[in-house]
Amino acid sequence: MSGVKQAEEAIVPSFNDTMEHEERDEEKGEHSIFSVKSLLWHGGSVYDAWFSCASNQVAQVLLTLPYSFSQMGMLSGIILQIFYGVLGIWTAYLISVLYIEYRSRKEKENVSFKNHVIQWFEVLDGLLGPYWKAIGLAFNCTFLLFGSVIQLIACASNIYYINDKLDKRTWTYIFGACCATTVFIPSFHNYRIWSFLGLGMTTYTAWYLTIAALVHGQVEGVTHQSPTKLVLYFTGATNILYTFGGHAVTVEIMHAMWKPQKFKYIYLLATLYVFTLTIPSAAAVYWAFGDQLLNHSNAFSLLPRSGWRDAAVILMLIHQFITFGFACTPLYFVWEKVVGTHATKSICLRAVSRLPVVIPIWFLAIIFPFFGPINSAVGSLLVSFTVYIIPALAHMLTYKSASARKNAAEKPPFFVPSWTAIYAVNAAIVIWVFVIGFGLGGWASMTNFIKQVDTFGLFAKCYQCPPSPSSKHH
């Protein structure tokens, strides 16, 4: 009893200490389960969270950003990257505040989160009730499902540039089986080495794209006419919205930290680093190839084949496998909670129970192999709500009463010191993303998506493949 009382007292003055204590206990438990006392496996530091955020935020989307620039022009592309990056930082901050609010309220009620990973829908349920839980669960799961689908499509799209003996659909079957092995990775604690390697891989690819495009120089007769069509403009804009909407797994990454309160600074630093990858690479490739990119959603397809390009393709493939795990792990948690295996200590039992999650992802990747257009469709219809509108509305409703604001676990930040200013910013985000991101973006990206279906058909054997005598595709 005295131990419980101590924890309860500690929670008010120093939420960090309580969290650290509890997370360390969890770590010890996990160490004894796996008998792996390895630096490579257990991560909960601020550095681990930074690597997780930065490597998870940009993977295959790096290859589609030049395509987006060709749809909207250089200036709009750069401005919107910065704009949506800042919006992403702010909404990730809101999610972290709501997580800390939920956790501090629950811990005051003596609820223990040992062997339980808190997820975004549970935060919404605890703070705002069952309807919000249902909305959060629906949007988050659908987004993460399609996020995983996109990684699979990207794997097939990329490997084709090294080996075109097999068509992209066959490669999707193969990579679906490879990605199914992520069921054996228990939680975000265990992505320590993977997120570190993943960020190295995207950094290499981004700078390869930049340098290769500059060395290649502008193609003969290059044109930069965009923006020419509204449909293309808003399709490109929603792909950028999708790029900086990688914080659907924010809560799970925070929960894997020993000091979750530090997360709000981490996402800011991760996004600033991501800017150094996305802006130079997209600008350089668009400068070199211009409007040719309108028919090449994967930047690799225009760059000449070389050992450097093959290395970038292989590194991106490995990174997509990692990002597939990042997007799928929260889905695994949800499914485990449904079937009742979430608290079990057997990795094998958890892995077997997770397999049904991978099957629909595999199937959808084969139906819709439209690498590029699918990013924009997911961005406008799912990312807009999941990581921009819902967190902003949830924050406004959680702190609408004076008592909630007075007892808030996290006070307003120094750069937006008043609650009124926070409300104004949140309201502006909701309106902007709903009208521009969901409304115009949804119309544009679905128009473009339907055009791809009409052109290539569902279950397309080899999407955007050049006709060549050596391969079987049309």
UniProtKB/TrEMBL annotation:
Q: Where in the cell is it found?
A: Membrane
Q: What's one Pfam family here?
A: Aa_trans
Q: Does the keyword Transmembrane feature in the UniProt annotation?
A: yes
Q: Where is coiled-coil annotated? A: none
Q: Is Transmembrane helix one of the keywords?
A: yes
Q: Which UniProt keywords apply?
A: Amino-acid transport, Membrane, Transmembrane, Transmembrane helix, Transport
Enumerate the InterPro entries for this protein: AA_transpt_TM
Q: What is its main location?
A: membrane
Q: Where is the Amino acid transporter transmembrane domain?
A: 42-435
Question: Which regions span the lipid bilayer?
Answer: 78-100, 137-159, 171-189, 196-219, 231-253, 265-289, 311-335, 347-371, 377-399, 420-444
Identify this protein by name.
Amino acid transporter transmembrane domain-containing protein
